[in-house]
Amino acid sequence: MTKCKYSLCRMVFLFLLISSALSLRAQHLEKGIDSLIVKDFNDPNGPGGVFMVSRKGNPIYQKAVGKANLELGDNLSPENVFELGSMTKQFTAVAILMLEQAGKLKVEDPVLKYIPDYPNGEKITIHHLLTHTSGIKDFTKMKALADIAQKEMTPKMMVDFFKNEPADFAPGEKFEYNNSGYVLLGYLIEIISGMRYEDFIKNQIFDKVGMSRSYYASDRKVINKRAYGYHKKESGYVNKTMISFSVPFSSGSLMSTTGDMLKWQKALNGHLLLDAKETNKAFSKYKLNNGTEYTYGYGWHIRDINGTPTREHGGSIFGFKTMAVYIPGEDIYVIGLSNCDCNSPTRLVGEIAGFVLKGVKEKRW
C-alpha cells in the first residue's frame, strides 16, 4: 500500500514537472513572438492584424491586435475574415492542377488550345502563366486600369483588356511577377470546367476542405466577422478605396481567416485535393529558357530561411496586406493578415517563422 502510494505520488510529481516545463516553453514562445509583433502592430485603436503559428497542424500561437472596424470600435479576433489579395493565386494554381489531375488539361498546353484568338497563344503555355514567365503585360501596370477599376467585368472582358498589349518579353525568357497571367488562368478554369471560377473554388476547394469562413470577395454581401480595410493618410485612417473584385478576379479576390488557411495548408499536406505528383509540381523550382533557375513554383515562392526550405506568398489589395510562410521540414505554418495596407506583415511573418524555427531546432518548444 505504501509502495503504491509512493508510485502514485511520483507519477503526479512527474506530471506536474512536465506540465510546468511545457507552460514555461509556451510562455517563452508567446513572449518572443509578442515582442516581434509589437514593433510593427502597436496601435490598439487603429486597424491591425491577426497572427497565427501552427506546428504539426495545431495552433501554438494566436494573436489579434487592433480594430476590425474603426467606426464601431470592434476589436480584431482570430475569427475575422480578411481579403487575401495575391494569396488567391495559390488557390487558382491548385485548381489548374486539379483539372490536370482529372485529365482535362496539361500544364504544357498552349493557351491557343483553349482561346484560339489569343495573341502568341501558340507559344504561351499554362506553365508560363503559373510561373509568371509568360511575358504578358501585367494589367496592374496599365494606365487604363483606372477606367475599369470599379466596373463589373466578365473574365473575357478582363482578358480582352490586356491581351493585345505588347509583350514584355518572349515566353520563358524571364521571371516577372504578373497578375494578368493568373486572371487568364481563372478564365481557363471557367472554359475547361464549365463552372464559374467563384463556384469552382467554393465547391471543389472550400467545401471539400471545410473552409466555411472563406469566400469570393464582395463588398455587398453580409459577411459575419468581416475585417474592414483601411488606408492611412496624413489626416489619419480612411476607409479603403472601393474596386470591383471582378477586376483582380482569380489573381486576388478571395477572402479567408487564419483558421481556414490552416485547414488549407493541412489539406495540401494530406493530399486531400492533389496527389503527390501534382503537389510536387506546385512546390518545384523551374528554369528559364537559358537554364537559369528561379524561385517560384505554381502559386508559391520557393525560398528558404537560413538554408531551411520554405513555401511563401503574400498579398496586397486596397485596405489589406497578407503573408504566410510554411516550413515543410518542420511542419511550421505562420500567417499574418492585416486590415490596413499601411502595415505589411511580410517581414514580420518571416521574422516570426525564423524565431519559431530556431526554437524548434534548439528544442526550446
TrEMBL record:
Key words, A-Z: Hydrolase, Signal
UniProt keyword annotation of Repeat present: no
Secretion signal, residue range per the UniProt entry: 1-26
Molecular function GO terms recorded: hydrolase activity
Gene3D superfamilies tied to this protein: DD-peptidase/beta-lactamase superfamily
One Pfam family here: Beta-lactamase
Record-annotated Beta-lactamase-related domain positions: 44-341
Protein name: Class A beta-lactamase-related serine hydrolase
